[in-house]
């Protein structure tokens, strides 16, 4: 069981992670002159030195050997690295393409995708409230498909990637810094190879873009590491329901940025789709909170019944002991008064 202190720490980590992710489009917008593929590769390459510095400062090396001896966990690390790489690439591309609102939609529908994963992969049964939320979410996707003139593949792709990442990360059971380091180690070699190729063919911008541009690319490791580490630290300390509620913060901030900072269009039909998604999330949140409250009440009642049963059993044992002592005293008196041979 996670204690309350760990839960408070997890909440702080969660708010920090999703808050930073929510304003991340502002940073990637500064690099819009660079191709999304190059930005993604730099993000991967510079993340590993950042992770190594953190490991050296914290002296967190003991987890590496046990991980290397567990092929199944290594495979999960590779899967997590692949999922988050695709997520990063889609998100960076969406900022450069002026599709921040559609990106925010992807993270809004992520909880609904997580529910679908639970049904399809974990054989979970949905509660009525969850069915209603999924139905409204499906209607929202249909409305948005009409609004965009096609299925919002970017939003669905982002949701699928991040839901997969969260599911795999939960099974790896590594803390934030350790998990981030393992994932960036997997990403480093292919990303470095791609940057070498760009440099050799004269397509890279790290040197030609100037000092400020190079610094922005280099800082991408820190920009990536901090919220991801916070997320990993929150995920191991909080229930999935709490993490699911916190994740609304990031797309909410992205939505505001897309609307007010990047001035993206929001025609009425797109507003209708977003409103339907928000209604679905409200239903989902209400259902989760109600279920959690009922679970707590049931646990409280069960604990009270157990305490009453224990008290009743203790009282019965005490009464039986008193009767036994009384019987023994009566027998002794009778033996004392009986004539001796």
TrEMBL record:
The keyword Transport applies. Residues 9-145, 154-285 form the EamA domain. SUPFAM superfamilies: Multidrug resistance efflux transporter EmrE. It is found in: Cell membrane. The keyword Repressor does not apply. Residues 312-341 are annotated as: Disordered. It comes from the Bacteria. Keywords: Cell membrane, Membrane, Transmembrane, Transmembrane helix, Transport. InterPro entries: EamA_dom, EmrE-like, RarD. Its main location: membrane. It is a multi-pass membrane protein. The chain crosses the membrane at residues 12-31, 43-62, 74-93, 105-122, 129-147, 153-168, 180-200, 212-231, 238-259, 271-289. PANTHER family: ACYL-MALONYL CONDENSING ENZYME-RELATED, SOLUTE CARRIER FAMILY 35 MEMBER G2-RELATED. Belongs to the EamA transporter family. This is EamA family transporter RarD. The gene is rarD.
